[in-house]
Design goal:
The protein has 486 residues and is mainly beta. It folds into five domains: 78 residues; 84 residues; 103 residues, Phosphorylase Kinase, domain 1 (2-Layer Sandwich), CATH 3.30.200; 93 residues, no CATH class; 96 residues, no CATH class. Helices cover 14% and strands 38% of the residues. It has eight helices and 34 strands. It has a 15-stranded mixed beta sheet that branches. Helix 1 packs antiparallel against helix 2.
Length: 486
């Protein structure tokens, strides 16, 4: 029995046995409700239902079949708040464009998305977000959910929405204390557990990496592209990785190669750079669009004039503010004594910039190009900093996810066992929870693996069907789960 809320009234119905809720990593939560009524009722868009302490809402008109004068069979589909992100277009918060690009870190992108949502409906906030170097992402009439997925893809991670809180990181819970489950009476799973492997994703042992080419003086650096730190090791999640002598690839240092399977990673968004901050702005000549600014955070040892690359012009790109985005670059001159920048005006989209609303402002951030920064900005092995080490850390994180064979298990929990142990396991039935899955025949040693999808029937919520996987495809597995139930 469940209650529908609509048009300031309510209707209690008895759901069919095949009504269910489906949750999955990086997907909208869906509640599919099937029931019959002796009369016709027009359930409007926005009809709500409460289930397991959460509220879900319809986004479309109800589907129904008339089986007789006094029998109407309904199918209503409800969604969680994640579906709201599809309603709205992502806009630049400065000039409200829907087609724009931005160079930013993960937290700045999530802040942009949260700001967009709060302009339409209150209560949204940022949750936990990974740390990673800036990446340039272009948005072209994207809705906010598409934009969020694009950000996750660009940073090779995942997103999660809980109670209007948006997090950008791998969705993981109970990783250090996984719940033991296996096939057999009293062990959790009913017969029908099966493993599916992904043929197009081989376990990788050697990862070739290519960095960016900006701010690289090939005549001095010896390479057109940024290289990894050469012959250096790095520990990530208990595993040790090492780069080769040429700075072109990494592999595990703490285990021998067996398959020698190779893969490659494009890290062209990582290059030597320094993020500067505008301290003061000077309107030198408004009519001629002459604007200068200072940056009092520039250290004494960093004289940009000493970093020039022969044959290239020094340019500035703003990372935030009215002059940011769309690959705008301004030729410039620099006075190191005063830490002062002089911008050369140019016409962009029919507008002379800087000028009008398009001028630098205090606390805007920027980066300089057409230069080769001092060695510590490129590679500092003593404290593992610099662009090369950013690339090394990102490569290790990528190889960590790629060196394990990709597979999935789908199984249904034993009803009686689940009900008897629900106080212990109920809180673990969420996407991202780790399960220690074992089988005496095909996984005798056990493997810690995440729940990536859960289908629970409204009439029997304590016997869910779950998918365990070490990969996330981003597409629904409900069709596979239906096969097991049948």
């Amino acid at each position: 029995m469940i209650t529908l809320l609509y048009n300031n009234t309510s209707k209690t119905i008895y759901e069919d046995a095949d009504s269910y809720r489906y949750r999955a990593i990086m997907q909208k939560t869906v509640v599919t409700l099937r029931f019959s009524l002796p009369e016709f009722i027009e359930f409007p868009i926005g009809t709500k239902v409460e289930y397991e302490g959460k509220t879900y809402e319809t986004k479309d008109v109800a589907s129904f079949k008339k089986k007789g004068e006094r029998r109407f069979e309904y199918t209503l589909t409800f969604y969680d708040e994640t579906a709201n992100l599809e309603k709205y277009k992502l806009r630049d918060t400065i000039d409200r464009r829907v087609r724009f690009s931005r160079c930013a870190k993960p937290k700045e992108y999530i802040d942009l998305i949260v700001a967009n949502l709060n302009q339409r409906e209150p209560g949204w906030k940022a949750g936990s977000v990974i740390e990673a170097p800036e990446k340039t992402i272009a948005f072209d009439h994207s809705n906010i959910l598409e934009a969020l997925q694009k950000v996750a893809d660009e940073f090779n991670t995942e997103w999660e929405i809980e109670e209007k809180t948006i997090s950008l990181r791998k969705v993981e819970y109970f990783k250090k204390d996984p719940l033991p489950l296996s096939y057999g009476k009293g062990n959790g799973f009913v017969p029908g557990v099966g493993r599916t492997t992904k043929e197009d994703e081989k376990a990788v042992e050697i990862l070739m990496v290519q960095g960016g080419e900006r701010n690289i003086d090939r005549s001095k650096y010896g390479s057109k592209y940024l290289l990894l730190p050469k012959s250096q090791s790095y520990s990530y999640e208990g595993r040790i990785y090492i780069s080769d002598a040429d700075g072109l690839s990494i592999k595990r240092q703490d285990k021998p190669l067996s398959t020698k399977q190779e893969d490659s990673l494009d890290l062209s968004d990582i290059y030597p750079s320094r993020k500067g901050t505008v301290s003061e702005v000077f309107e030198v000549n408004k009519e001629k669009n002459y604007y200068d600014f200072t940056d009092n955070t520039i250290p004494q040892e960093l004289d940009y004039n000493a970093c020039l690359i022969e044959g290239e012009s020094m340019t500035i790109s703003f990372l935030t503010g009215m002059l940011a985005g769309d690959d705008k670059q301004f030729e410039c001159k620099y006075n190191h004594k005063n830490r002062r920048w002089q911008l050369v005006p140019q016409e962009i989209d029919g507008i002379t910039m800087p000028g009008g609303n398009y001028i630098p402002r205090i606390n805007d951030t920027y980066a300089v190009f057409g230069i080769q920064l001092p060695d510590p900005y490129i590679c500092n092995n003593s404290d593992k900093t610099g662009a090369s080490w950013e690339m090394m850390k990102e490569a290790c994180r990528h190889l960590y996810d790629k060196e394990t064979p990709k597979f999935s298990f789908i199984g249904e929990l034993q009803g009686l066992w689940a009900k008897q142990n629900w106080l212990r396991i109920g809180g673990r039935m969420r996407c991202g929870s780790y399960i220690l899955f074992s089988d005496t025949q095909f996984v005798p040693e056990g493997v810690a693996i995440r729940i990536t999808g859960i289908k629970d029937y409204l009439s029997s919520p304590k016997t869910p069907v779950i998918e365990l996987s070490n990969t996330v495809s981003g597409s629904s597995i409900s069709s596979e789960i239906d096969k097991i139930k049948d």
